[in-house]
Amino acid sequence: MKPTGILFFPAFDWAISPTHPEREERLLYTRDQIFEEGIMDLPQIREYQPGLATDRDIARVHFCVPDVAAQITEAHLVSAGSALRIADAYMEGEIKNGFAIIRPPGHHSKTVSHGNRGFCNINNEAIMVEYLRQKYGIKRVAIVDTDVHHGDGTQEIYYNDPDVLFISFHQDGRTLYPGSGHMDELGGPLAYGTTINLPLAPRTTDTGILYALEHLIMPILEEFKPEVIVNSAGQDNHYSDPLADMRFSAQGYARLNEMLAPDIAVLEGGYSVQTALPYVNMGLIMAMAGIDYSNLREPDYVPERMRENPANLEYIEKMVRRQLQVFRQREEQIAKNRKTRERFHHIHKQIFYDTDYIHEDQSIQLRLCPECPGFRLIESTAQHRNGYYYRVYCVSIPANACASCQAEGHSCYTDMSSNDRYDLVYLQDRANDDYRSIDIKKDVEMVL
User: Which residues lie across from 100 on neighbouring strands?
Assistant: First the structure.
């Protein structure tokens, strides 16, 4: 039997601040415990060394303003590159599954990146998914986000892509950052039903979360039939996490991972550095490798304190029934949406970068194509921390775009390339793996 691949990257040279919750100790206590327990010496485990992503890998997902170098450090390239390293090992048949235990995290980073929000500059899972699609021809992917905070960045990146199923359970956004992930966030007009959110009440336990997994997530995955399942493996649903208020245990995480059986897991949040993370990561690794985890317990775990409220379980059951129905009716709704006479669907957003204190204003036009998911035109403005006010125009053409949308998207890029209303104009053409930008004032085009 093939082993489970494990990769550690603590990012010693990257921190938001010396005492910030997102710090290197998140991984170091886990690594120490796993090595002390001898897990890494077992034949079921194979350790991998970090990799390095390229600017091109980043541009495949993000419009970094003003450029990739301005938004990331080498640690970000190694974190994203390590996810790619585990993905390669899985796709090339070296391992049966893999877990990239890495930082900095990424699931709050959206298509346009002006800075750090939710501790994230670039989105590791999305970069990995687009890498898999370009290199290996993968089409259908499922991302299950188990972080206590809604994975709003990953959701936004794939909100209009019917071939990427995004499922997130998280503490209700009315009680926790980033305030999103509500049940009516179901995907764009041509990808309706492939975004599924399950906002859970504070203090939901193993019982409630595993019920949602068994009765909603697993049936949806079986029907969607993804080629690859990715776990955006946040660990801050744990009962001891200082940034949230849930009641999940290490045993619960292990059971979830055993049932979900992800092909690739990528670490996201989790800030109970000593109390939870070593046990949760141990549980995930043991479950992925098929090692008995029945004796895994946190020292302070008291089962009597983790009983599910019957009223909350009833509430979860209702949400599960509703979201399962939405998913099963998605094709009918998409067919109705395609009949609109509108050429473009318009959206306006205001996005707050809490870490860097940046306010972004964004207008999006989605081409309502009768043949494909359509391309996006994004106008974005924001004042950076250095005081410079950027106005940018972005053209994003998906990998599964039809020939007409590819041609129209390129025309939009060409037409806007001399428009002095903007500082920068970007082209992201995943269909042809072509990524470029023009600095309007300097009249210089950069091709990655």
Answer: 7, 266
Residue type, 263: D
Considering the domain architecture, whether residues 261 and 313 belong to the same structural domain is answered as yes
pTM assigned to the model: 0.96
Domain that includes residue 134, residue range: 4-332
Give the 3-state secondary structure of residue 438.
strand
Distance, in Å, from the CA atom of 353 to the CA atom of 149, rounded to the nearest integer, reads 15
Burial of 203 (0-12, 13-18, 19+ CB in 10 A): middle
Q: Do residues 63 and 165 both lie within one domain?
A: yes
Q: Which long-range contacts (CB under 8 A, 24 or more apart) does 9-13 make?
A: 9/50, 9/78, 9/79, 9/82, 9/100, 9/101, 9/102, 9/103, 10/103, 11/75, 11/78, 11/79, 11/102, 11/103, 11/104, 13/73, 13/74, 13/75
Q: Are residues 346 and 250 in the same domain?
A: no
What pLDDT is attached to residue 380?
98
Domain boundary among 291, 313, 332: 332
Positions in the chain short of pLDDT 70: none
Other CB atoms closer than 10 Å to residue 318's CB: what's the count? Answer: 9
Q: What are the helix (H) ranges across 74-217?
A: 74-91, 124-136, 152-157, 206-212
pLDDT of residue 32: 86
303, 332, 361: which is the final residue of a domain?
332
Active-site amino acid positions: 108
| Residue 141, strand partner residues | 164, 228
Whether omega before 104 lies within 30 degrees of 0, making that bond cis, reads: yes
CA torsion, ordered 440, 351, 115, 22, to nearest 10 deg: -170
Same-domain status, 194 and 264: yes
Amino acid found at 200: L
Pair (240, 362) in one structural domain: no
pLDDT at 182: 98
Looking at residue 393, its pLDDT comes to 98
